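FORM 12-B: Structure-to-Sequence Request
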């Protein structure tokens, strides 16, 4: 039995969801949509904040009426619009394609969130931090705003694990994550960097403000935290990665001074 273009797209979309990265997922879905619609090319966009899918496709130039790109928006489980109006036979296929795209978008959002979330603490992970730091750096550069980073490390965590066990160590890391959430401001971005290290991204905060926050947070948990800070302007950071390196170096210096390695 010959499958319809919409059915072929649904199968191709299911395979595309196994793509290892966002860019490949979008390419695979676009190719599948183009085949299903009998189009030369197609483009797909997922709008994470708006929970919508939009895109466009271009039919073969021989079909004069469809020579210009057609655009669609799919939101709330319904195909909202196709511009210009579809040709006969296109609408049912497009509805199926758009509905499948919406399912793909939901899966993409879930996978994206999971890939950027630390499973133990529920905090954003290293990948999410890098993205947030790049955005915050660009904003600080554009508006000449202060920006600081704080790197926190649990004192004597290895000994804590050895004394109380790894399950207790996991509970301690979750307590630290909760304490950082409570102590930080709504605008701050908190991530687990790995092991017993956490990073706080502090927009519109200079060195003095970052040090004051670090002082409040350092004794708010058990085990206690040692925190190193660096500020974009005061520490003459050359970029996001350099700002993070400087904060990490400040942490190492602070741990040596406290004898808290």
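FORM 12-B RESPONSE
SEQUENCE OUT:
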């Amino acid at each position: 039995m010959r499958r319809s273009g919409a059915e072929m797209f649904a199968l191709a979309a299911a395979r595309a969801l196994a793509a290892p990265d966002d860019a490949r997922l979008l390419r695979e879905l676009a190719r599948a949509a183009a085949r299903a619609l009998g189009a030369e090319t197609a483009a797909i966009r997922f709008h994470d904040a708006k929970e919508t899918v939009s895109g466009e496709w271009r039919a073969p130039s021989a079909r004069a009426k469809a020579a210009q790109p057609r655009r669609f928006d799919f939101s709330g489980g319904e195909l909202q619009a196709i511009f210009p109006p579809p040709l006969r036979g296109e609408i049912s296929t497009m509805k199926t394609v758009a509905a499948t795209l919406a399912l793909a978008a939901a899966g993409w959002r879930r996978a994206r969130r999971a890939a950027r979330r630390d499973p133990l603490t529920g905090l954003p992970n290293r990948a999410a931090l890098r993205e947030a730091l790049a955005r915050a750096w660009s904003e600080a550069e554009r508006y000449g705003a202060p920006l600081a980073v704080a790197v926190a490390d649990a004192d004597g965590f290895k000994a804590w694990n050895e004394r109380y066990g790894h399950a207790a160590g996991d509970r301690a890391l979750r307590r630290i994550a909760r304490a950082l959430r409570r102590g930080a401001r709504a605008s701050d971005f908190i991530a687990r960097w790995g092991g017993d290290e956490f990073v706080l991204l502090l927009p519109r905060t200079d060195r003095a403000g970052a040090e004051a926050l670090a002082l409040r947070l350092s004794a708010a948990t058990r085990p206690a935290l040692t925190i190193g800070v660096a500020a974009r302007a005061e520490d003459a950071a050359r970029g996001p990665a350099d700002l993070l390196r400087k904060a990490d170096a400040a942490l190492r210096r602070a741990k040596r001074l406290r004898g808290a390695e």
